[in-house]
Amino acid sequence: MGYSHNFFAIDIERLQSVHGSKDHDLLRKVLKDHADDVEDNDAFFEEEIEEGEMPNTATALRQIFEGEIQSNVEGAMYGYALQMIADQMGQLVEGGEYGVGAVRDQPFHSLLLQSGVPISIPLPSDFPEIGFLSRDQISDELQRARNYKHNLGPDSTLTPYQQRMAESEEIIDDVHAYIETLEKAQAIGLGLISFRH
User: Fold this and answer.
1) Which residues pair with 192 in a beta bridge?
2) Pfam family of this protein, just one (predicted)?
């Protein structure tokens, strides 16, 4: 199975406020409702956790809520912990039959890819890839995605790879799935956060 995005419609400011909130009730809820995910993450990253390269999942979650995040570790676990928080606080949204594979391969300059992570955590060196859009940015992102064909041609600022891929059926389907995802988040009236892995 290939990589794909997990999108959550969410109030971005509310999500950002979790960092350092010391909201122990919400932390307990996340730990309880995502117990299987916590166990799976810890098993997958067992070696890195044992070698001190990253905290275990529960510790990463606690550190986010306490606002005491380690800066000298691999950021992947914090990214997956943030996804659990987003899942708890937001609503999963998905467009297309198979979801969205890779916004970065789509033939337009996406705001999602420019935003980074909404809270201060060490960046994952690999996955998950994280990006977000405020509620107000969704309209602009929708316009960029809908107008992707206007970005093609000799004056394009797209990468050569994006130019070549722009007419492939797979990329066109992916753009339409992303548009559908954005429309769903817009209809809900919230921002959007993405975790790609």
Assistant:
1) 9, 133
2) DUF7691
The reported pTM is 0.90
Q: For 65-104, how does the pLDDT look when each residue is reduced to its tens digit (9 = 90+)?
A: 999 998 889 999 999 999 999 999 999 999 988 899 999 9
Who's near 110: CB < 8 A, 6+ residues apart?
103, 104, 131, 141, 144, 145
Please report, for the chain, the start and end positions of each structural domain, with discontinuous segments joined by +: 5-196
Q: What angle (nearest 5°) sits at the alpha carbon of residue 120, between those of residues 40 and 15?
A: 70
Show contacts of 81-85: CB within 8 Å, 24+ apart: 81/57, 82/117, 82/119, 82/121, 82/130, 82/195, 83/6, 83/128, 83/195, 84/30, 84/34, 84/37, 84/38, 84/57, 85/15, 85/18, 85/26, 85/30, 85/61
Given this model, what pLDDT does residue 1 score?
A: 44
- In sequence order, the β-bridge partners of residue 194 are 7, 131
